[in-house]
Fold each of these.
Amino acid sequence: MARRTLIAGNWKMNGSVSSLDFFDAIAPAARNSQAEILICPPSTLLYQAAQACAGSGIRVGGQDCHARQSGAHTGDISAPMLREAGASHVIVGHSERRADHGETDALVRAKSEAALEAGLVPVICVGETREEREAGRAVEVVASQLAGSLPEKSRDMPLVIAYEPVWAIGTGLTASVDDVANMHSAIRQCLPDPLTTCILYGGSVKPGNAADLLGLDDVDGALVGGASLKSIDFSAIIAAVSRKSEPLR
Ligand code: PEP
């Protein structure tokens, strides 16, 4: 089965109601693309974002969810709540949550399972630090994160994996195409459904490097932070997908 390309934007703790015109601005690029487009705004904007992109084919997702479906967890948001607000996906285990909130692989696994139970597709983030890469441990670290973070029963489940080297997030640095190709191939070998699981690259993806990264065989799309805040840049990244699909001459 062919894997569909997914271009996902992570707005992080950015955006306001006035940002919702973003959806109209990227609609032409999304319409002309074979890729699936997903935007993960802050949860306060999720419902309005879902309304703003209704009928456009663009999807919205959460940036995190709690591992339980409901209960006494002040300030947290559950996967069913995201779903009710209009989300189709939820990012789990982003390195900023792993670092800022001490999230472990076990917690990321529990969140992934909660997402699936609520009918959401978890976008499970993994990635090594600079020190780990420099020590030659990048593949080992990512394989271990995957082993601990994937849902217990993940075969035939709609999962998305995002490989995001921590040192490339928000820094302007990107992994080389060789390093990305090697890592994505290694990740694929760790997955229960290697042929059908979508693996995204994330880490300073921008219009200038998107075509090279998306052109790699094992790269099924991108998770985009900073460049997803500007409709012009995000539209250009979406347009880079069609260059991926163009036949080689
Ligand atoms: C991210 O936060 O998932 C990300 C990839 O950020 P940026 O594109 O800004 O590096």
Amino acid sequence: MSDRIYNFSAGPAVLPEPVVKRAQQDVWNIAGSGIGILEHSHRGKVFERIIAEAEENCRHLAGIPGNYRVLFIQGSASLQFAMVPMNFLSPGRVADYLVTGVWAEKAVKEAKAIGTVHEAASGKAFKFTRIPNAAEIRYSPNPVYVHLTTNNTIYGTQWTAEPAVPKGVPLIADTSSDIFSRPIDVTRYGLIYAGAQKNLGPAGVALVIIRDDLIEAGSTGLPAILQYRAHAVERSLYNTAPTFGIYVMGEVFKWIRESGGLQAMARRNAEKAAILYDYLDDGTFYRGVAEAGSRSLMNVCFCAPTEQLDEQFANEAAKRGLSGLKGHRSAGGMRASIYNAFPKAGVEALVAFMKEFERAHRSAPATAARA
Ligand code: PMP
């Protein structure tokens, strides 16, 4: 019997079991080298091969064209919130942001520290419970880029397709919480970034997929470490790369490939999320937070009839080996994060617990009564 429990954490989050098991061995001795992955030089042959393979598998998975670089950059998505405007938001220009949650707001805040920002749409008025529709988006006359957050981890909403952007304007996406959960047409974007710790690996490294012309267009006045150019020229080895994070990402890419690629991930994720949403739709005790049509397949947010019951739910679930279900502190309620590596059996176990909890507390007022 496994001593692991179901981990619904929003991130750092569950990783594929074979990857974790393999990493245990490779920490001791990787590729028969007699040295563990944590101890290898980032400039040695063993790591050179790891990073080359990671890039190769990443390119294969997402069908990344030759005019895009794949970069592994230390730091997190929050560093990308800053690097994006530092590189591209030059004086006199305006950057457009589609504001669909707290993470998008944080990206805006960093951009405002650098230059002029236009909020082309904001879901704040409806508490970020849905993605703005096309009619609600108003771009500025000539934005230097448009930034969006593909999946809103806190509210459990997700864009189902890229919004139209003005012709020739690069779309820049924070895909931290849904990267490689479904096929992605990289050519629709100028830059895609994601912190690793949800769908790709451990915290501390971000994946950046960037088109060559944006590397060229980036500011040359920044410290090198903050320029995409430096990371591209040095093939992610400008500084001592986050070797372990890159290694784990590489193993996750291999696992996705072996599991059938992004199409297969999308199918599995849709199936897992449907188990939860169907149950939410069928009853009146719990209430799903996101509006139908904007629902995330990665983070399923819901509440019980009262805040007290929310609290009780999360605590009792944890005692049953269903961990990490408490919603984000800014949203409350519950959140089940069911990224690529999260098993279907864990979703079924959650629904079984939800039914049981509902039976025990059915006399509570319907969730509709809650503000
Ligand atoms: N963007 C999104 C969509 C996120 O969910 C998060 C973290 N949960 C971040 C950015 C920030 O990531 P980090 O803390 O790694 O900078």
